[in-house]
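Re: your question about Peptidase M23

S., sorry for the slow reply, the queue was backed up all week. Below is exactly what I fed in.
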Amino acid sequence: MYRVLLFDNPNRKNPKIVHEPYSYGEKIKDSEVYLSLNGLGISTFEFTFNINNKYYQKIEPIIHFIQIVDVTRNKEIFYGRVAKITNKMEASGSFSQTLLAEDEKAFLYDSVQTYMKPTRMTVSAYLQKILDAHNKQVEAHKQFRLGEVNVVDNGDLLRGLGYQSTADTIKEKLLDRLGGTLTLRRVGNINYLDYLSNYGVNSETPLQLTKNLKSATRDIDISELFTRIVPVGQDIEDTSNTDIEVGTDFSRPKYTIEKVNGGKNYLDDEALIKKFGLNTGIVEFSNVKDPSILKRRGLQWLKDQSLMLVTWTVEAIELGLLDKRYELITLGNSYKVDNQFIYAVERLQVIEKKFSILEPQKVTLTIGSKKKKLTDYQNEIKAIQSNLVNVKKFATAGVQNISELIKRQEEFDNDLSVQSSKVSSLEDLTSELSTTVTESTEAFKQLASDLTNTVESVGTAQTDMKKALDDLIKRVEKLEK
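Result:
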């Protein structure tokens, strides 16, 4: 169960209850919690209440903050500022207000970075430089300290800064190029940003057909595949000293690899070309001038290139709310997805989680976004084909089992018919026997009645004979006298 709290200050003091999970108190009527690790990983909470909620029309964007607390586990699952408010009137005449809150990583959009000449720096030092610039421009509650950083670069990188928001800088200069996960961690009243190559743990809670998997979709995206690339480096400086105005929409020449690549400005992946044909793309290394380094970086890019992006989207039942043997599905943790009618069992990370605090047992998950290389692709095809064979075997075995069941059913029906015939004959025999018993009973009753009458007649005759005998004795006695 979840409680929603409202703060009119950034210090998390004097909370007001917007939604109470128990039978009393204020209520919201709709909600969606969206937890994410994609990109900057900014999570959101959207909720709606009607005019009966006492905080209707009393919440303002930016200066009000929303917190969701799991009251069962006494754990915060969301905290952020109100970013958007929508008021609505339905055709029925009812009024409602919908609010969208975004978590604290959105504070990174409140500052900008300024130009810094490309300099060799570690990932940790570069991110610290970015956060230092951010912290100088914002209030205390929007500031971040650098936490754990274990993402490493690919070597000889020059890192510079341009005129962008801090959020866009981190995304484009670090996350898009090096991968990894940016996570927010709060210790006391201090927010830490961790930049991690691996995040989360392996969970034993399954996402399994017939257990807690309601629906599943598996997407394979190969739209970003290049079999031939043209590596380009930094802009070549214009030394012509011309004063011609060229406007804002123009291109500058860039450093390329012809000098060190036999006059060719491109690099091929022969294995991919043989498999998929030619598909050419530009790969830019904006801080590189040396053609040899540019070629080496291009070859490394081809080697590390991912062919496809695999993503599962599933609807699942939150078993952890129903059975204490299972843990709650947690953002960042990895789970075994088991739906072998779609694909073999594979363990993937939860990168998005959506649910309503009003129905927390129903969750929608995005799992995976796992990039795979050529060998992975080939293994993928083999696994799919093998899985199809297994599914067909399973289906064939199922058909055979069904045929056997049908045969057994027919045999059972025949046996049942025979038994029914026997029962029918037995019923006829029973009926005849019942009639005979009835007739015999009636005969016995008649015989008993006749016997009774006979006994009574014999009794009467005996009485008469005794009386006659007594009279005869009396007469004899008189004659003797």
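The chain has five domains: 2-105, 110-196, 207-221+307-372, 228-237+251-304, 373-453. The first strand starts at residue 2 and ends at 7.

Happy to talk it through on Thursday.
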